[in-house]
Every structure is written in C-alpha cells, then in structure tokens.
Amino acid sequence: MKNFLFLVFTFYICQSVNAACIPVAGLQFERISDKELLGIKNDKNFAVLTISTRDSRYLREGYLPDKMISFRFFSDELCTEGAESRFHIDGKLFFLNSVQLFKK
Questions:
Q1: Residue 69 located in a structural domain
Q2: CB within 8 A of 44, min separation 6: which ones?
Q3: Is 47 inside a domain boundary?
Q4: Which of 72, 73, 76, 102 is the most buried (most CB within 10 A)?
C-alpha cells in the first residue's frame, strides 16, 4: 500500500511541475485556428494557446466561434493542469491544453 501511495504522490507532483501557467490580467485573445488562440499582452504577441472542449455538443471541426464576445476565467492564472485549466468563451467550457510562449 505504501508503494502505491508513493506512486500516486509522485505522479501528482510530476503533473503539477509540468503545468504551464500564464496570468490572465491584461491578456487579450485572437482566434488563429479552430483550436488555437493568440494571447496578446501590452500590444505584443505573448503566447499561442491550444484549447479543447470535452462537451460533445461542441465537438465539431471548429471549436472556436469566429467572433468571441466574452471570456470568463475562474482564477488569476490560466494553466494546463488542474482547475485553472478551465475557462469559458461565450458561456461554453474550454480547457487549456498547451502554452507556447514567444521568445522575447
């Protein structure tokens, strides 16, 4: 039992360490593909965010609407793991899968 708990704990720590997070304050978004957003901060390209949805009603060729009106975040950061990976676009639930930061 101790070995199992150790493995579960190690897996959890490894997943947390690999999570990429970005602050959402001042971040703007532009749709660049069906599943990608361009994150813009201070009028500069900041990151490319790959997203997904697990709601079968929205699973189709293009996840994102052409015009996105409202974003709702549930924390100060958007992360690739945990509760912070969830956010709304126009009332629909999406998940952040990956973040690719632009070099400065």
A1: yes
A2: 102
A3: yes
A4: 73
